[in-house]
Amino acid sequence: MWHPRMRRTRRGQTLVEFALILPVFILLLVGLFDTARLIYAYNTVNNAAREGGRQAIVDQVEAHIQDRAAEKAVALGIGAANVSVDYRTTDDAETPGSCAAVLGTDAIYGCLAVVIVPYDFVPATPIIGNLIGTIHIEGEARFPVEFNCLEPAKPQCPVGQ
């Protein structure tokens, strides 16, 4: 037989269950939000590195390359000074600066332009941030040099026209 006290007890049980599940549910939602931000940051730094690399293969002026990459990563607050530009030989592509000596000469055609855009991702949720900490992300692009251009020595460069 149904009694009014049984109904009150059941309401209390539902409220307690809701109170236990709500923080976990909110943590999952915010964790999903942070995951989406991480994926966005990863894609943004890789796109910025690609754009900087595309600039580097036709214009070897470091400031132009850094500005182009930083412009594409503006949503993350990455400055031009954070972008690194390097030229490496195809035979020794893992050694930084292996092609720096030929910069500005026609020997640059045998080099790879390497652009690296770093970013430190910090989760927005303090609990998740304490669990995983800061995640270092680097976007890197490597393209073969297609045009020998080092302004102002060669003002026919694609940039500045």
Radius of gyration: 26 Å
Rounded mean pLDDT score: 85
Specify the number of helices. Answer: 3
SSE string: HHEEHE
Q: Keywords for this structure?
A:
161 residues, alpha+beta, three-stranded antiparallel beta sheet, 3 helices, rod-shaped
Give a written overview of the molecule.
- Helix 1 runs antiparallel to helix 2.
- The longest helix has 53 residues.
- This protein starts with a helix and ends in a 17-residue tail after the last strand.
- Helix content is 44%, strand content 17%.
- Strands 1-2-3 form a three-stranded antiparallel sheet.
- It has one domain.
- With 161 residues, the protein is of the alpha+beta class.
- The mean pLDDT is 85.
- It contains three helices and three strands; from the N terminus they run H-H-E-E-H-E.
Question: Gist?
Answer:
The protein has 161 residues and is of the alpha+beta class. Helix content is 44%, strand content 17%. Helix 1 (4-56) packs antiparallel against helix 2.
Q: How do the strands and helices of this protein lay out in sequence?
A:
Elements: H1 4-56, H2 62-72, E1 84-89, E2 111-121, H3 126-132, E3 135-144
Antiparallel strand pairs: 1-2, 2-3
Helix pairs in contact: 1-2
